[in-house]
Amino acid sequence: MELLITIAIFSYIIYLRYYADLRTKADKELDQLQMGIKLFESGQIESARAYFDQQLLQHPQWSVAYLYRAKCELALGDSEAALSDLITGDTYDNTVPDIHVEIGRILYDQTDYPAAFAEFDKAVFHSQGRDAMPYYWRGLARQKLDQPQEAQHDLDQAIALEEQAKNRPTNQTDAPTTFFDRRLLTNAAFVLLNSLLLLFVVKQSPVIHWPYLMATSSAAAIGFAEPRKGWSLAILQAVTLYLGYTLFTDKPTNSGQIDLENFNLYGSMILTFLGSFIGGILKRAMA
């Protein structure tokens, strides 16, 4: 039993570290590089470049660091070094739309319009139709390639996306579009598996401490993974525990064992809600 609980707790830690955060690799890098990005956006180009130099010494596979160092190099007039950095960044992560846009702009300035169009086309694909700039530049490349109708369609799409961005309330920029998103459904699958394991511990544990420890740990993981929607996952775990126990397990005949299992079950359900609440508070405090 002790080994099972230890494995479960380590599983929660691994899950939170590697799987609960469903942001892309580029999104995570972007968060880590905010200091340098602010230097770049405030016009401190040399300082920003030095910052990204240092980051790439420590993290030589961060594509976003290559992207922003390339932007610094472009601002300093070194397009050759910028193109080299962008191509290197693309080899580590070819899904970053801005890398393709910047490569395409350099090729466009070099009048290599077919190659520029190919890069802008990749940027449109990886931005999933949410960003205006890939459409804008693809439209310009299409004009150079004598594709007037397709070019106008891309430019119109760029204008429409710009209008949407202007009209979007600033406090809703990062709001999820649906409640049942991919992140929540993935976490729900994890909670279901954990609930089955917790139910086993409720039935097999000779003391209340093990199911209570596991329930608290798993609930804290729920709140940490979903600080805004953790209540729904807590309900899912509690309901799964109750229905699984009442419908799919054999009831003991010994009154002492009945009392012990009831303590394990209902205590675990209560701790599920308390733990998820505390986990959510901790995650929001760390944000």
Number of helices: 14
Highest CATH level, the class of the largest domain: Mainly Alpha
CATH fold assignment of the largest domain:
Serine Threonine Protein Phosphatase 5, Tetratricopeptide repeat
The end-to-end distance, rounded to whole angstroms, is 35 Å
The parts where pLDDT drops under 50 for at least 5 residues are: 171-176
Q: Which CATH architecture of the largest domain would you pick?
A: Alpha Horseshoe
Query: How many β-strand runs?
Result: 0
Domains, number: 2
Q: Biggest sheet, open or closed, and with what strands and sense? A: none
Classified in CATH, the superfamily of the largest domain is: Tetratricopeptide repeat domain
Give the overall silhouette: elongated
Rounded Rg? 26 Å
Structural class: mainly alpha
Query: Strand percentage, roughly?
Result: under 5%
Average pLDDT rating: 88
Proportion of helical residues: over 70%
Strand and helix order? HHHHHHHHHHHHHH
Describe the structure.
With 287 residues, the protein is mostly helical. The chain has 2 domains: 25-172, Tetratricopeptide repeat domain (Serine Threonine Protein Phosphatase 5, Tetratricopeptide repeat); 180-286, no CATH class. It has 14 helices and no strands. The protein has helices at 2-18, 25-32, 34-41, 45-58, 63-75, 79-92, 97-109, 113-127, 132-144, 148-167, 182-204, 209-225, 230-248, 255-286. It is elongated and about 85 Å long. Residues 171-176 have low confidence and may be disordered.
List the helices and strands and how they pair.
Blueprint: H1 2-18, H2 25-32, H3 34-41, H4 45-58, H5 63-75, H6 79-92, H7 97-109, H8 113-127, H9 132-144, H10 148-167, H11 182-204, H12 209-225, H13 230-248, H14 255-286
